[in-house]
Automatic annotation (TrEMBL):
GO terms for molecular function: ATP binding; protein kinase activity. Signal peptide: none annotated. It comes from Potamilus streckersoni. Residues 23-304 form the Protein kinase domain. It comes from the Eukaryota. Pfam families: Pkinase. Keywords: ATP-binding, Nucleotide-binding. This is Protein kinase domain-containing protein.
């Protein structure tokens, strides 16, 4: 990825000329609240790309580098299911910022819009498997998206990639967060009922809503406002247990009471879906975020068993192909004549005899003591030990000294480097979780010598140590 910045003395119109120097604009792909996307072609090699032109202007290059979207894509790249950032174009004079991204065919919303028949279940399964992989990878790297929806999930030739990280945050940043985050239809209950006290689990609620929408071709909770959104959630999922609502009340400045009702259930809305898919949506859309499924747990669900086995077979096949194509080590024996063999044998015998002499000279002469001498007085045993130590010390000069180099065991890395900032991720537990609503960002000392965090396999130090700016 490269970054191009325009000098202050250039004209304002030069920002588009700079883009046209390297890329040919073919048309407009779409427009959102904060940016518009253009379809471009590289003039040099003819490859296609997407240019995301920001509507907001920026004052400096430092401000651009600290943008969460840029920081997130830099950290998560490369990954098969995360959009790739290829280049950054920044105009200092006008403050215009353009991101050059890889070009995808369409988003999920464009795929299902206007369809009159359901997508094949195997296609849906592949899309959801890739989406869960991207979310799992993102969470394990200490980032949560906060705006997972069909418009931000791009596809190309059955490859799915998560995009638009403009709303993302660090998993370890301080609460409360922004309240009005995420598109309303895909907003989790804790985002609606608390003053910004939510966690990375909100992404999994959104993933469950997207899953339902791909299967049914219509949104699960299309609320017209926040109150209507909660009402629609309760109509389907039912009113949650009072203990769950009490968690949210502690993080809210006002009280709320909902009439008890039993939801209609997701099964009635998806009559043709498989039982595994219904169960997976329920676990993704669990009302209590502390009980909600993680992306790592979703990848191990029986719904994806067929894809997991196919992945293992593909990995084994690729490994065997690499072993077959890799060059084998062959011992090359040079032809020798009888005279050369005779000389080699003589050299070897001389070398062996010299080593034997050196060994005999370096070792103390053994003493053949009778058995009854071993049980003499302590005084005689002590005398023999002193003589033996003196004899060894007199021969110490015959052994070569081992050189000692002044090497640094732990070289000094920059404080923002990957090696010093991130601990190794261990996949030791299926139930390892990031902070929940009730126990967010609290650490406990374990009985082991090394301190452990309740985050488990998702444990990562603060992003601020890398200067991520989240």
């Amino acid at each position: 990825m490269t970054l191009i910045e325009v000098g202050r003395n250039e004209k304002k119109t030069f920002r588009m000329n700079l883009l046209l120097q390297k890329y040919r604009i073919l048309g407009k792909k779409g427009e959102g609240t904060f940016s518009e996307v253009l379809k471009c072609q590289n003039v040099k090699d003819g490859t296609y790309c997407a240019c995301k032109k920001m509507k907001q202007t920026y004052d400096s290059l430092e401000q651009v580098n600290n943008l969460r979207e840029i920081q997130a894509m830099r950290r998560l790249s490369p990954h098969a299911n995360v959009i790739e950032l290829q280049e950054i174009i920044f105009d200092k004079k006008s403050g215009c910022l353009m991101l050059i991204l890889e070009l995808m065919d369409m988003n999920i919303y464009e795929l299902i819009r206007g369809l009159t028949h359901y997508l094949p279940e195997f296609t849906v399964r592949k899309y959801m498997y890739q989406l869960c992989k991207s979310v799992d990878y993102m969470h394990r790297n200490g980032i949560f998206h906060r705006d997972v929806k069909p418009e931000n999930i791009l596809i190309k030739e059955e490859v799915l990639k998560l995009a638009d990280f403009g709303s993302c945050r660090s998993v370890y940043s301080k609460q409360p967060y922004t309240e009005y985050i995420s598109t309303r239809w895909y907003r989790a209950p804790e985002c609606l009922l608390t003053d910004g006290f939510y966690t990375y689990k909100m992404d999994m609620w959104s993933v469950g809503c997207v899953f339902f929408e791909i299967l049914s071709l219509h949104p699960l909770f299309p609320g017209s406002n926040e109150v209507d959104q909660i009402t629609k959630i309760h109509d389907v999922m039912g009113t949650p247990d009072p203990s769950v609502l009490n968690k949210f009340k502690k993080s809210r400045g006002m009280n709320f009471n909902f009439p008890t009702k039993k939801g209609t259930g997701i099964e009635r809305l998806l009559p043709n879906a498989s039982p595994d898919s219904i169960e997976l949506i329920y676990k993704m859309c669990t009302y209590d975020p502390d009980e909600r499924m993680t992306a790592r747990q979703a990848l191990k669900h029986p719904y994806f068993k067929e894809l997991r086995e196919a992945e293992k077979r593909t990995a084994a096949l690729n490994k065997s192909k690499v072993e077959e194509t890799s060059p084998r080590k062959v011992n090359i024996v040079e032809p020798t004549t009888p005279e050369v063999e005779t000389m080699q044998k003589e050299k070897k015998s001389i070398k062996d005899s010299e080593s034997d002499v050196h060994l005999i000279a370096s070792l103390p002469k053994p003493q053949s003591l009778p058995v009854h001498h071993l049980y003499k007085s302590k005084k005689r045993r002590h005398k023999r030990m002193v003589e033996s130590q003196h004899q060894y010390s007199s021969q110490a000069g015959l052994f070569p000294k081992v050189p000692v180099h002044n090497s640094s065991i732990n070289p000094s890395y920059h404080s923002k480097s990957f090696q010093t900032s991130f601990s190794k991720i261990h996949d030791s537990s299926d139930m390892s979780l990031l902070p929940g609503i009730a126990s967010t960002y609290k650490t406990h000392k374990s009985t082991n010598k090394t301190s452990k965090n309740i985050f488990g396999q998702y444990q990562l130090p603060s992003l601020d140590r890398r200067g991520a700016g989240f």
